Amino acid sequence: MSHLDARLRWIAERVTRGPVADIGTDHGLLAADLALRGWRVVATDKSTAALASARATVAAMGPALPIELRQGDGFDVIDRGEVTTVVVAGMGGRRIAGILDRAHLDGVERLLLQPNRGVVDLRRWLVEGGWEIDDEAIQRAGGWHFMMSAVPSPRVRALQDEDLVLGPVLRQRRCASWLEWVASEHARYQVLVRQAPRDSRREELQRLLELMQRVLSEPLAAPSETGRSVNREQNSPRTNRKT
Ligand SMILES: C[S@@+](CC[C@H](N)C(=O)[O-])C[C@H]1O[C@@H](n2cnc3c(N)ncnc32)[C@H](O)[C@@H]1O
């Protein structure tokens, strides 16, 4: 039985290459789950208490699992070229972008990110850094959780403001939770527009508000919430394990 909540399960199911870095592992549940799936994992956290918690999880779930726990800030404790997939989950988008900005990402083939807020900043960082967002999801669990997958791309296209704000993949999929989130953003933008001074910023807010209005008035399309665009490799993770 999986110990993961839906947001971490979304990430775990999208790992197609290892070794995997789980930056800010905290409880270590994702790292343990990935190791149980056959991936070699380097799980890091800058907090001593968090790392102790991860250590307890690993001890309980399988001390022989292929997980290395390391204490440190971001990529400080990851060797260059050591991992092919990077997970950073459960933090603000700006913090995640800051960690990635200071990282050496050579050889990294996929980023799996889960910002709780600051999602526009993170999307902008990805696109400007040559990462294409190839999968996204959103769920409500207390607050809103965004999940995203990004792959390096030499020809990543700049995102329009609409895509930065609403999500390039989410906009295409139009799942029910995204529409619920757009409705809540629409209500928030109405207040922002009312409060904004009459300048170009207000015009921009008004434009996004009208876009949200259009999105909400369009008929609901069929795609499933869990639809994905990631191509998974044919081989099982266990056969791909890199030691
Ligand atoms: C809210 S927890 C998220 C835990 C887990 N990733 C999840 O999504 O459930 C955030 C964790 O990230 C760690 N963290 C924050 N900034 C970090 C950094 N720059 N480097 C390493 N760990 C960091 C914190 O110590 C904390 O344990």
Structure description:
The protein has helices at residues 6-12, 29-36, 48-61, 93-101, 119-128, 161-166, 168-173, 176-195, 200-217, 237-240; strands at 20-23, 41-45, 67-71, 85-91, 110-115, 131-141, 143-152. The protein is α/β, with parallel strands linked by helices and 243 residues long. The protein has two domains: 6-157, Rossmann fold (3-Layer(aba) Sandwich), CATH 3.40.50; 174-223. Strand 1 (20-23), helix 2 and strand 2 form a beta-alpha-beta unit. S-adenosylmethionine (SAM) is lined by residues 23-26, 44-47, 50, 73-74, 89-91, 95, 99, 114.
Name the poorly predicted regions: 224-243
Mean pLDDT value:
89
- Architecture of the largest domain, according to CATH? 3-Layer(aba) Sandwich
The domain count comes to: 2
Q: Helix coverage percent of residues?
A: 40-55%
Q: What is the structural class?
A: alpha/beta
What is the CATH topology assignment of the largest domain? Answer: Rossmann fold
CATH uppermost class of the largest domain: Alpha Beta
Terminus-to-terminus distance: 26 Å
Give a quick account of the main beta sheet: strands, pairing sense, barrel closure: 7 strands, mixed
Radius of gyration: 19 Å
* Beta-strand content estimate: 15-25%
**Helical stretch tally:** 10
Compile the SSE list and pairings.
Layout: H1 6-12, E1 20-23, H2 29-36, E2 41-45, H3 48-61, E3 67-71, E4 85-91, H4 93-101, E5 110-115, H5 119-128, E6 131-141, E7 143-152, H6 161-166, H7 168-173, H8 176-195, H9 200-217, H10 237-240
Parallel strand pairs: 1-2, 1-4, 2-3, 4-5
Antiparallel strand pairs: 5-7, 6-7
Helix pairs in contact: 4-5, 8-9
The structure holds S-adenosylmethionine.
